[in-house]
Known about the structure:
heterotrimer, B: 347 residues, mainly alpha, 0% strand, globular, C: ABC transporter involved in vitamin B12 uptake, BtuC, 16 helices, 2 strands
Amino acid sequence: MKFTFSKASRKRGVAAVVTVAASAILLTGCVAPTGDDSGDGDANASGSITVIPKSLGNKYFEASDKGAAEAADELGLTFTEAGPTATGSADQVPFIQTAIQTGQGAIAIAANDPAAVCNDLKAAQSAGVKVVAYDTDTDCRDVFINQATVDGIAQGLVDLTSAHLGPDGGTIAILSGGANAANLNAWVDRITAIIEEDHPEITIAKVAYGDDIDEKAYQEAQGLIQSIPDLDAIIAPDTVSVKEAAHYLADTPEYQGKVWVTGLGLPSEMVEYIDSGVIEQFGLWNPEDLGYLASYAAQALINGDITGAEGETFEAGKLGEYTVGPDGEVVLGPMFVFDSSNVGDFSF
Amino acid sequence: MSAVMTDPAAAAKYQRFGRPLWRRLLLRTETAIILAIVLLIIIATATVPYFAQPYTYLTMLLNSAPILLMLIPVTLIIITGEIDLSVGSVLGFSSVIFGLSYAAGVPLLVAAVLAIVGGGLIGLFNGVLVTVVGLPSLAVTIGTLALFRGIAVGLLGTRAVTDFPEEVLGFVISPIFGSPLPMVTVAILVLVVAFAVLLHFTPFGRGVFAIGLSPEAAAFSGVRVNRTKLILFVLSGLVASATGVYYTLQYSNAIGTNGYGFELQVVTAIVLGGVSIWGGRGTLLGALAGGVLIAALNKTLQLAGIGSDTISIVTGAALIFSVVVASVAGSISRRRRGKASAIAAGA
Amino acid sequence: MTTTLKLPPIETGRSVFGKIIHAREVGLIVLIIALVAVTTVIQPSFLFSDGGFRELLRQPTILILIALGQAIVIITRNIDLSVGSILCLCTYLSGWLFANVPGIPIPVVVVIGILLGAFLGLINGLLVAFLKVPSLVITLGTLYAYRGIAILWIGPHFIRSSWLPPEYRKLGTMQVFGIPVLLIIVAIVVLLVGWFMTNRRAGRDLYALGSNPEAATLFGLSERRLTLNAFVTSGALAGLGGLVYLSIYATGDAKVGTGYELESVAAAVVGGVAIIGGSGTIWGVALGAFFLATISSALPVLGVPSLWQQSIVGVFIVGAILLDRLLFLNRTLQAKRKGRAL
């Protein structure tokens, strides 16, 4: 049965060896931290934190990681940022594993999927690594740093919208981001609930998902505006969605003034739409502060100052003192409203 | 005059195989890939901190288990000269069927069977379109990739089913009796052995190679080309959907986006392992070794703190490099053989 | 030396009218009209609002460009999986040029963007043509490699629309007699490429290469040169696609173009290009791309949950190749019966 094993396959095999060995040597040689050894794990454990954002290349997370790095610096923690390039449910798992293996003191993670990373986070916890969830919750963590309460965000956005619509209310739609992100779904659910309870004059016609992709959000915004003829407003609780909804309005002047858009946006991305008048107000919080708080919470956990139980307090540097709320949730603060008066003041 | 073999016994052996036995065994692609893996692990243990732990190997295999499982039947498909790009979507689809049935109250085992049967049906669909209707498998499986990923996401796109019994989850990811190998390794090995026997030691397997080398010649030799291909596509669907059930349990997460992009990783592993994309050549061991090599490379680079972007570049470069060198070497050896036969023919 | 090849007409035994009806392009046009009509009936603003009409015509432009490039490559019996990554790099480079070279003229940026795409395509072409390596594997490798380079270079940054000169952004929304300028540009490209592929020797040679490489080589065609040209063209068109993207969306980051490769193959297949190479028309591909792109903007308007979009696209891909095959079998049968050539 022997088919030809030519020199070609031998050469290819040798080439593969050379490539892999060469690249492995080059890369690990260049990057591997010097001097550390597996035996030294404990000495490092108290002084290191790994931050895992939803994905690399995301402006919002770049800001939050910057804040986390700043806090880590103040606290004397070694800071590492590691993340996947895509937002698949299990894409962050290898980085959690690396954090466990390198004996990190704490992991701060914004999970793409709350359940998929659970097994490995539990493994981290049993290995003595503290787990801080930030921006979006996951099931297996010690504390969760929430940028604002779900209520705070939902209420804030609904208030902005109803103030604009007035007592007659109107028809609105919601343009969310990734369909399985816990934070987005929590906000959407709460917005829907608040409107049902307190604002019978407002009807929610549809919920659409932009998947955090520019073109998709743009097309979905167009779809909403075109398929709901009496649409008065869009709430877009996601930075990509609100940006693209505003972008569509900017491109289509006939809807400006007819459809009103608000949501959660980055000032750096929204400033041109505020300036041109397409958007009046939007909300957010300071993502740098979010990361900053996450690092301090991690340190507090490592030191044993807090365990995630309700009522515990800890110091968070320039942000002051924070108290752990129910279910291990720590809230950064109320939703911040941006409008033309302050939008230019921020760098993120 | 060129060199001439004067020893008749040696000449006889040379004529049969072209090289002595030890050279034949040692200089195969598979050996080289395995050597590469060993070399990589040695280098990693020496230079990357924290590498030398059982946890490293455990997670290396756990992370790559879905790819390793799915590449096994796809290797056979590629050897016949076809391709199956729908495996990632089949994984997602079966994950959704599994999750939805279980959430609807169906017993776990029955839900798993339903999911696997679903995958097998997709494989059947692919196979029928390729063999009976005569469509090119690249086009068909790109279509089913989109179709079934779309159905999976449509059925279970926003919410996931995550409530699976703890004991089962624990079992799935636990290591085998204290060794640094997860339970799923058993499944991988069983599948590899089964398919390897099928491929290398049965007439069916010889038929697979024959189809890859020349479908017409194979048909004339009595190989049932269409039936073989159909069976392979169904097997691929079954294995991909079983992998979907496993994947769902590994991450305790049934959602339509599971397995997104896996098909490209599968093809990368197979090609790196020395299987020719034209068909007709390659071994299962090689493909598996290719998969393990990529897994080891990923693990090493991740542990060394290298970003996923760079890992992407390295994977792409390794893939290109390996096929390029093979091709260059192939043309060099063809020219040499051409010269040799020219000389032998009468210089 | 260039000669215009005069090929004898092929006897299909059909009248001109019959030929027209059976043309793939006509089927696609009918489908497109049907889709737009149904959507407009349900939601008149899809077609009859300024924004709707503009989107309808503007949305498909990017897909048409990359589908054209992909089709040319597929016709030569290859495939180019790296188009998405090439598009991403070209989009960002163009935005970056606008931001960092103040006052740079728009045509210069356009040329550089296309050249980058052509260059990346050249790498693909060299590897495939001169080293005889399967294009599926090579472009799979460059898909990873180029994307990795993009992420490494771009990182978390993104193009701000304020970086772009206002004329360039206006290009995205400008309309002439109600037709978006971008569509006009793309239509010109389609016409040029289509004319080239049908009427120029170099274009016809690509078909010859794809349908029978051995015969083509014996005939004296340079497989290497043709394959190289195909990949360079594909890369250049992807580069142009990146520039169009920049104009429409006025933004761009490291994730642009993800998934485009499969979409471009789908558009080519739906447009009548056979995966095994050697057949398919540029007009068909343009229409196929237009059709698929219109589906994705029609579905949200129709109220189909966005989650189901991909499955519908999948149905059309499978349907298209199935249809092609059945039509082919039918024609073979008819031809045998009538004793004529296909």
